[in-house]
């Protein structure tokens, strides 16, 4: 036996009575001594060291001392492959709560025991030590068979209790250090093996909403190491923000039921095999259209508060998400129970839902329609100033080619404007000297065809009359979800406007034929044209009683130049 690390011989043993090895002779027929080449040698108790490399040397020598280096003798060696004593293997076979601590059973086989004879199991709770226990090894022939080259593998078993108060374990993980050391107290120079983590609180809560009975069937299991000091069990129903709707106590008929799942997934927790529960819970009005969560609770308080350990269910939806309503589709937000409006991303797709407001025909009032509130957009629509094809399923697909801008008389382009035609403050005989739009005259911007400057939906077509109820002109309103476009003072009668309320118009599309002296193009941030018109001699208005709350006039010449969106 030779220590390759220390470069010295450890022991030598004279072999007598070589054993017959016909198998060796068959494969080495040309060697005279092959027939009797076998040996079986026991070195007895040796002092070996962990981490050192050792070789077995088979030597033929001319002298009995086995050296053959005295000047008159000789020897011939064969070095077997080196073995390094650095093997370490361990397993925790079982973990259970016990009186006074945690019972840990398993085995630890390591070559480090050659130099570090003291072995410990050290318990950790969320990474901090809660107790330790010295190992008294027992026989494990199964480990010896699996790891025959590892020191003391046949005597590597242990079954012990790491002392602790199990009631302190509420949330988190247990883990264990299997340590060998040169210190009788378990510190000193040590080599550690770390176990897997074990949850101190485990479970599963599932819920199925039953529309026919308007109830939720709750079932599951919940195993906790601190359960023994918390004899009361509750199911608590909350919203997704943790606000409680109500709670129900459990009793011997609907709790502590047998569960193979709990026993299999958390067998190290006492009572895991009898930790199941089942109860049907009613759905209150406040819960409808919401996502809920159900808590299973162990507590020391009969009312369900006190010192408790909880396990939460995943989200359980009560008529949430996409739902049919008023002939269309709406989306109930699981967090609030409210109908979604505006943009909403669901499962990676973008949808748009109406806010419920529309133009009241003939009044130019922007009014609320409960039947429209929350309705999902489908088909081609303008939203926030851009064109989308929402298809049948409501998923938004942008159509940027429909988002362009155009001058109302493309042949003239921007052209030129006299002082009184421009937007903003100018005298021109107007109230407050303010002009809320831009006038395209028949002289400076010739042509009859009036083209849409941007896309959108026609929300109203109406007339302006004088005090004798005679038509002065007709106008068309187009709304793109962001800006109201007002085409007025160009059409003497309804027949000159060729689009209808509800039509989609696209940039550059002809919407009517001018037969009066000019087109007045107005642009406002509010679709509430009645209020816009009432404040046409000032840049903006604010009125909290109105649906849109406020509105501001936009300079059309600036907008058509810069194309702001």
Produce the secondary structure layout.
Layout: E1 2-3, E2 8-9, H1 22-27, E3 53-55, E4 57-61, E5 75-79, E6 83-84, E7 88-98, E8 101-110, E9 118-125, E10 128-134, H2 141-146, E11 157-163, E12 173-181, E13 190-194, E14 198-199, E15 201-210, E16 215-224, E17 232-239, E18 244-249, H3 260-265, E19 276-282, E20 291-299, E21 308-312, E22 316-317, E23 321-325, E24 328-332, E25 342-346, E26 349-353, E27 357-360, E28 365-368, E29 380-383, E30 386-389, E31 397-398, E32 424-425, E33 434-435, E34 437-441, E35 449-451, E36 456-465, E37 471-479, E38 484-491, E39 504-505, E40 510-513, E41 518-524, H4 529-534, E42 540-542, E43 550-552, H5 556-562
Antiparallel strand pairs: 1-2, 1-3, 3-6, 4-5, 7-8, 8-11, 9-10, 9-12, 12-13, 12-14, 15-16, 16-19, 17-18, 17-20, 20-21, 20-22, 23-24, 25-26, 27-28, 29-30, 30-31, 32-33, 34-41, 35-40, 36-37, 36-39, 37-38, 38-41, 42-43
């Amino acid at each position: 036996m030779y220590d390759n690390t220390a470069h010295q011989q450890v022991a030598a043993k004279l072999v007598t009575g070589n054993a017959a090895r016909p198998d060796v002779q068959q494969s080495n027929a040309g060697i005279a001594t092959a027939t009797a080449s076998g040996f079986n040698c026991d070195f007895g108790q040796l002092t070996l060291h962990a981490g050192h490399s050792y070789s077995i040397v088979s030597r033929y020598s001319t002298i009995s001392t086995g050296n053959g280096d005295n000047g008159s003798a000789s020897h011939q060696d064969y070095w077997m492959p080196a073995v390094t004593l650095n093997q370490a293997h361990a397993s925790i076979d079982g973990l259970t709560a016990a009186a006074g601590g945690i019972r840990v059973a398993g085995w630890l086989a390591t070559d480090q025991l050659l130099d570090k004879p003291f072995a410990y199991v050290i318990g950790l709770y969320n990474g901090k030590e809660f107790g330790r226990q010295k190992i008294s090894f027992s026989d494990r022939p199964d480990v010896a068979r699996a790891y025959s080259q590892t020191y003391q593998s046949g005597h590597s078993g242990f079954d012990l209790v790491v002392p602790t108060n199990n009631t302190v374990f509420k949330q988190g993980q247990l883990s264990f250090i299997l340590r060998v050391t040169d210190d009788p107290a378990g510190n000193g120079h040590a080599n550690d093996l770390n176990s897997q983590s074990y949850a101190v609180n485990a479970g599963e809560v599932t819920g199925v909403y039953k529309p026919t009975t308007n109830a939720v069937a709750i079932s599951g299991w919940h195993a906790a190491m601190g359960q023994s000091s918390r004899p009361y069990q509750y199911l608590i129903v909350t919203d997704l923000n943790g606000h409680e709707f109500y709670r129900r106590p459990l009793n011997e008929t609907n709790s502590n039921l047998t569960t193979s799942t709990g026993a299999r997934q958390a067998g190290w927790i006492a009572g895991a095999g009898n930790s199941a529960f089942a109860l049907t819970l009613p759905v209150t009005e406040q819960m409808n259209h919401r996502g809920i969560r159900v808590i299973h609770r162990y507590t020391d308080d009969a009312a369900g508060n006190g010192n408790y350990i909880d396990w939460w269910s995943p989200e359980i939806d009560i008529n949430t998400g996409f739902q049919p309503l008023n002939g269309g589709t709406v989306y109930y937000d699981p967090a609030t129970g409210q109908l979604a409006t505006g943009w909403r991303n669901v499962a990676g797709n973008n949808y748009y839902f109406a806010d419920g407001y529309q133009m009241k025909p003939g009044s130019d009032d922007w009014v609320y329609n409960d039947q429209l509130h929350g309705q999902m957009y489908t088909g081609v629509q303008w939203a926030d100033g851009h064109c989308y094809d929402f298809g049948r399923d409501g998923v938004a697909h942008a159509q940027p080619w429909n988002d362009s801008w155009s001058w109302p008389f493309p042949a003239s382009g921007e052209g030129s404007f006299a002082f009184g035609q421009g937007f903003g403050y100018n005298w021109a005989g107007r109230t407050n000297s303010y002009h809320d739009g831009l006038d395209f005259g028949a002289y400076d911007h010739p042509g009859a065809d009036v083209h849409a400057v941007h896309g959108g939906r026609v929300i109203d077509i109406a007339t302006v009359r004088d005090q004798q109820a005679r038509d002065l002109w007709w106008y068309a309103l187009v709304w793109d979800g962001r800006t109201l476009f007002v085409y007025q003072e160009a059409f003497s009668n309804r027949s000159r406007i060729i689009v209808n309320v509800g039509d989609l118009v696209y940039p550059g599309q002809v919407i009517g034929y001018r037969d009066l002296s000019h087109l007045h193009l107005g642009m406002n941030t509010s679709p509430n044209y009645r209020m816009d018109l009432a404040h046409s001699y000032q840049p903006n208005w604010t009125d909290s009683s109105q649906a849109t709350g406020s509105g501001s006039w936009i300079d059309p010449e600036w907008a058509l130049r810069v194309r702001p969106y």
